Amino acid sequence: MPGLDPDWQGAGVLVAYSAAVILASVFGGLLPDWIRLTHNKMQLLISFVGGIMLGIAIFHMIPHALVASGGAIDRQDVERVAWGVMLGLLATFFLLRFFQFHQHGPGDFGFQGEEGSEPAHLCSEHTHPSHSHAHGQQSTGKTRWVFVLVGLGLHTLMDGVAMASGVVAESGHHHGIGIPGLGIFLAVLLHKPLDAVSITSLMKPSTTPNQRLLVNVGFALMCPVGAFLFWFGAGLGNEWASSFATWGLAFSAGVFLCISLSDLLPEMEFHSHNRIPLSIALLAGILAAYAIGILEGEDAHGTNASESTSHDDGHVHDHSGHNHD
Question: Which candidate among 21, 44, 247, 283 keeps its CA 20 to 30 Å from the CA of 116?
């Protein structure tokens, strides 16, 4: 976006992204009141979105994190990104373990049956027992949806950090039609309705439509809150911005990897009868994530090798290591 100050450009893009995510999240949360969701279509969508998140984490977020600090990439930069990815993955893993919030399975959308005395998930061709990790504690009614809301709320704050870190890292590096942070935004945009529908589906048996709408809107606002908290933190200074962007992108990549795999891995156990369509949806999502780089622009990864910066010594140094008088 030539002619605009990078800070104002990034803020404008982030406002637009936040508005779109809020609308998508609220829409997703309203779906259980409007339509009956089919299990097969939901699983295909989960596979596609999981593939996008996986591809965005590997093709976009990790490379962006490596170059976000500027200059030549050294071992310290690689280790910093590796630690960021690991911390994001572990943080999400422990959120999943303690809050058990990210279960985009049929039981979370009203598809349950009985196989003997044990709850069963209904698939297109058969039923299979539900695997609960509650260790003997049955989370029902209000208790369960509150735990899901807390866990997904924290996860959504992380999604906001991911979205803002992508914008911070890429603002000012684009030419032509490039849009900063586009890939991360699309992954969050597509994933957020699935999170919202998880909450409102669980709320439906024990709450009123007005209560669900209030919770739904509050949940949708969590992503912009995380995004702008990160944005203001990154605005403390150039060095802070670089550090925030690097850690934010690396941490968010770990979050995306954990969330996508938590959706995709159960398919191998529970959905072998749909293996071909689900595999095609996964590959389509990964290819879509890779193709998003074309829309982001050729400078989306902050390729600094060809960029030059002037210093107080009167010389111009490019990041490829050559100095020119």
Answer: 44
